[in-house]
Amino acid sequence: MHVSPALSRIAPSGTTAMTDRAIELRESGIDVISLSVGEPDFATPPHVIEAAKAALDAGQTKYTAVGGTSQLKEAAALHFARDLGIAVPSSQVTVSAGGKQAIFHAMLATLREGDEVIVPSPWWVSYPEIVRFAGGKVVPLLTAAKDNFRFTAADLEAQIGPRTLWVLLNSPGNPTGAYYPEDMLRGIGDVLRRHPRVMVLSDDIYAPLNYTGRAHATLANLCPDLADRILTVSGVSKSHAMTGFRIGVAAGPQWLIKAMEKLQSHSSGNPCSISQAAAVAAFEGPQDFLEEWRERFRQRRDRVVAAINAIPGLSTPTPDGAFYCMIDAAPLMDRFGRDDGKLALHLLEHGVALVPASAFGGRDGFRISFAADDARLEEALARIEKALT
Ligand SMILES: Cc1ncc(COP(=O)(O)O)c(C=O)c1O
Hints:
389 residues, alpha/beta, 7-stranded mixed β-sheet, 3-stranded antiparallel β-sheet, 12 strands, globular, binds pyridoxal-5'-phosphate
């Protein structure tokens, strides 16, 4: 074993044992419904597929500029302005192989050993691992179900110290669906004004999936005076059901965009040329299907929240966005030795694959993704009820 110290700082995925068992069960002919995936079950829109085919036919199969084609940078700038209210020139936009890579490169390009990164928890699984790999120290900012998993400006202020370099903000959030409205973000902006060294990574990848009826709110739009220390990450993976295309976009200060592109020039090089052409179509093409998708997700969310809260021992707040529900099972945990990995395996034995809360820095519960077909979702909820009552 000759793995680097940086790699040994990373924890293996908390879901491996479950994934292995799910495969075993499926191979032995048992029907397992997966509510663990983080991607829409809808098909990629046809105009996006056509754009990918056209790019192939036109021979767009060679290297592009490292940080993305000028067409995609322009299209992404249009997306930032139209959908997030962030006016940026295309020179302050970069394109990467998924939103994940943009976050990875931003952390690697800026963190020094021991710099602190405030990560609200429960968190998206990759945030703490990326920070640790890049040499940063994760400072968890705990949030609770009773607050819809949101922290306040005062909570944030209490965590900021002399070594804080970044705050990671994800709205709507994975795994909780937490959504930060305008007033809360303005409060967070006030805190940041008192701490000029601190930067914010605003992960807005789920922005179109917001069920509050209110427009998406984001820090770079609300606090333009802070824009030179905000990196906003977005993409097409979740909004346009394009997870396999691997395209993410980020907008931020010129120096940071340049630093991320410098790193990308030696890591992956340019993102896939075909996928870039498809992403141009996604950003520039019709957006009206999003309304229908949002409505379907909202209906599923309401169904899941009602069904889960009707099962004794389970409870969840209503998530305001994304397609996840973080479910508390604390009253049932004695049955599982207070180990939510065991609870998740128990549910798996009853034919439902989901992710234990501990994989997200939470505890005593699990996350459901409701990006699943209505009938399968209904069947999964019935199985969960049967397994726990
Ligand atoms: C909060 C959050 N940010 C970023 C990503 C990365 O998305 P992509 O597939 O574009 O890399 C995900 C994907 O699960 C996510 O949940």
